[in-house]
Design brief:
2 copies of one chain form a homodimer. With 503 residues, chain A is α/β, with parallel strands linked by helices. Helices cover 19% and strands 31% of the residues of chain A. In chain A, helix 4 runs parallel beside helix 5 (275-288) and helix 7 runs parallel beside helix 9. The interface between A and B is medium-sized, with 32 and 32 residues. Chains A, B: Residues 427-499 form the DUF5605 domain.
Chain lengths: 503, 503
């Protein structure tokens, strides 16, 4: 008797495992799908082969009530039918995140979602001990989104073997790799033997476990499906192999509510992939991901065309090294979509120029992005005797920015509505508001005015607070009205919040 | 017997005062000029009326030897003739500064000139005590250029009366001016009574004394001839009055070797002046300034067209508030002239957004400009109980940047040749060299790499130094060759200098 889930919360993941054919190549030659019918929706989704004769179908219900399911396909002569009950979502289960109000995000249940992302490219492919440490660190952090890769990463500081590979086969010998010679191996190094038609289910099962663990911590899994940092040849498969990979990934992962699709990290460093290829993969997602998860594609230098209809939000790596988050308002206007600066340089001290800004500068960029109505991403790259760097391996955080990002997150969650709207900018100040609400946030960045004068009108009373965004302090300055002056300590990274006083 | 100078150093200022007509309006109705003939040059220059029946001619000799002079004009029926001897220049007298090697500057005698400018708009129109303080401060600083105005300044923190005015007449009542209402008075406030055809010689004599004092401190006087910050109407004279003003200013000041002409501070905030007006004034300078002093014009927002032939160098106010000095290399290429960022925000804590960056940020901008082959300008605006702010009034310096600018100046003077050439830029580094010399300067700005690896070739030996540009320390790392690694402390504002080792 094949077991299946009888009751689950809305937006959780229903799953069934059915035995099926094991001859030929089950990954390619047999299909399984499930049709799910409730009062408010009917969805048909692809399942996948999970090795050892097991075929799996997953489904994320979007409504409460009773659902009927029917599992069928060439994988077996039998079919499976039944019902399950979907209960109300509880606790931290707010459903998947979608775009709200053009430039912002919200959970399916309406709760606003303010993205404070981090990057740990292959945290899940490190030792079990390190993974545990990473999850513990994330639990105590403000990060509610993490970018990471499905495929292993080959790069400086990433010469070690991942714990598993996505395909059946054997990797090239990595013992000769060093910090000096690793660049030569980009692509398909000699010695790799992979069967690109047979996946390694262990690798994907492990990633799913990580996705679930992140979900339980209320952290979005921004999955980087393709990337160029490769010595195994996974970035050089042909179109047919790529499509098979995409279908398998979507069938396995799309039923988890916290999944986002990042088609690539630095798509433009993959010259073998054309725009036509990316559009093809985007098409697969749009057809096969029945839950319409957020979709984007990240750049090294030139942006992908973010006006493409399948792109839900901009996932941007800064292009200029001096002016980064300060372009957010221009990009919002240009693309009319949420702007997420997923990469704006990392806090750290490594020798690579993209990973050695200070915590203060990173936090400043976050505030500049936020008050322009956008979002930013964190990463950390401090030299480490064991070569464990957060940006790639996770572990513990050594930097100063995470606490300040937690403080910023707190302020953001106090925004009335779905997000900040940039209002204006002066020489030394950026100001955000909320549409039709008397709520103003001013940020002074690296400038140090000693005071600021305000005037809104003669009668409205405002609660005024002076916020030290680095020392994480909020000072209540009482109720002000008419023309009023706010004294500031003449130090960097100050902000002022002004809200209509509610009697 | 009219006295005159018998002997003077080359590039000093020869002067004669001759009595003449006092009827009608001597400023306008009578002329005086001098013709100076030496073995290598013959120049005819305009003189000026100095009040009390005195007409003056000044001349700066550009060669050693005997000169003959002939003074004549409608100011008198008499003429004056004679000779004087010009001796070699001594000590700090290197002559006027001119453009050298397209992008840089040098004194007439060939000594390179690295501009480290500051701004004190109306220092010379403050109390005598404050002026003395300013000169003392300048003497102990690295500043070798100071921008200041001929006309008084009306602005926030500048509501006091200047010690003198350029014309005969009476000013409007300034006792009602406050920090809140001063903006209303921009232009010609009621109560002003000026005779725009009669200059006040005291005002100009005092400015000349200041120019001489600066010259003796080896400081260039970057004279701002027109500007918009005015409550007296000096910025609103008609074309004829402007031309008379220009002729008078050039006749009085051009014979001092340390004079530069800044046609305007923020020319674009003077809507009554058209491009045709500015071109007309530039033409007057080109015709009447026989010494071809450096000429430019400073902006608030849009640049003046720096390709105009009369413009010798770009005098730029940064346009973007985040990316300032980092545009220097683009501007050098665009304009093919020295780029002097005369205004890139001031160190301070006043409430105005152009005057409250930290000393660290200002010094960073200086280094970014310098390693891109350009020059920057300093200013300081710290709140002060007596409202004495360096940027306008001079006095003493309260900030942290001046010492670091002195340190930068020291490094610049060690450049072999006439200035730095930008070589390349990476994520976190800007590198400058000197053409055809194995001399390299790397600067890391706000980035903090822990080390850097270098390779030039297998055999050349290099002296390597690690420079802490904020803590002002130079650490000798010895001789390196081939592939070598330079450890860095992982802090901001570090630089590395690499020079071919001379055995």
């Amino acid at each position: 008797m094949t077991e299946f889930i009888q009751k689950l919360e809305k937006w959780d993941t229903w799953e069934i495992t059915c035995p099926g054919h094991t001859d030929k190549n089950p990954f390619m030659d047999y299909k399984i799908q499930g049709t799910f019918t409730g009062d408010h929706e009917c969805k048909t989704v692809d399942g996948f082969y999970d090795g050892e004769g097991n075929y799996v179908v997953r489904f994320m219900p979007s409504f409460e009530g009773i659902y009927q399911f029917l599992i069928s396909g060439s994988f077996s002569e039998k079919t499976w039918e039944g019902t399950f009950e979907v209960l109300p979502a509880l606790g931290n289960n707010h459903g998947p995140v979608h775009v709200a109000n053009t430039y912002h995000f919200a959970y399916e249940d309406g709760v606003p979602y303010y993205s404070i992302g981090t990057t740990c490219y292959v945290w899940e492919l490190q030792s079990e001990e390190l993974q545990k440490q990473t999850l513990e660190t994330l639990k105590n952090s403000a990060f509610n989104k993490i970018r990471f890769c499905i495929l292993p990463k080959h790069y400086d500081y990433n010469l070690n073997e991942p714990i598993s590979y996505p395909y059946i086969g054997t990797p090239c010998d990595s013992t000769k790799l060093t910090s000096e010679n690793f660049m030569q191996y980009n692509g398909r190094a000699e010695g790799n033997q992979w069967d690109y038609t047979r996946f390694n289910p262990d690798h994907f099962r492990h990633i799913e476990q990580c996705i679930r663990q992140l979900r339980d911590l209320s952290i979005e899994a921004d999955l980087i499906v393709m990337h160029p940092y490769d010595r195994w040849g996974f970035s050089l498969m042909d179109r047919e192999q790529d499509e098979q990979y995409w279908n398998y990934v979507i069938a396995r992962f799309s039923a988890y509510r916290n999944v986002w699709w990042s088609l690539a990290n630095e798509y433009d460093l993959m010259p073998q992939k054309s725009v036509e290829d990316w559009e093809c993969y985007a098409g697969i997602i749009c057809r096969k991901d029945k839950y319409n998860h957020l979709r984007s594609i990240h750049n090294c230098r030139p942006f992908y065309d973010y006006t493409r209809p399948w792109i839900t939000h901009c996932s941007i790596q800064r292009q200029d090294v001096y002016k980064t988050a300060e372009y957010v308002d221009e990009w919002r206007e240009r693309y009319q979509k949420p702007v997420v600066l997923d990469e704006i340089a990392y806090e750290g001290n490594i020798q690579h120029g993209w990973g050695n800004i200070s915590g203060k500068e990173l936090v400043r960029r976050f505030w500049e992005a936020s008050l322009r109505g956008g979002y930013a991403g964190h990463g950390e790259t401090y030299m480490n005797p064991n070569d464990i760097l957060w940006w790639s391996h996770g572990g513990v955080l050594h930097g100063e920015s995470p606490d300040r990002l937690k403080f910023l997150y707190q302020i953001l969650t106090e925004t009335p509505g779905y997000g900040l709207t940039p209002l204006k900018q002066a020489w030394d100040e950026v100001c955000a508001t909320v549409e039709r609400v008397s709520y103003y946030l001013y940020y002074y960045g690296f400038n140090r005015p000693s005071f600021r004068e305000f005037y809104f009108d003669d009668t409205t009373e405002f609660d005024v607070e002076v916020i030290d965004t680095w020392d994480m302090d909020i000072e209540n300055r009482g109720i002000c009205k008419g023309k009023f002056k706010v004294e500031l300590p003449g130090k960097e990274y100050m902000a002022i919040r002004i809200r209509k006083h509610q009697a």
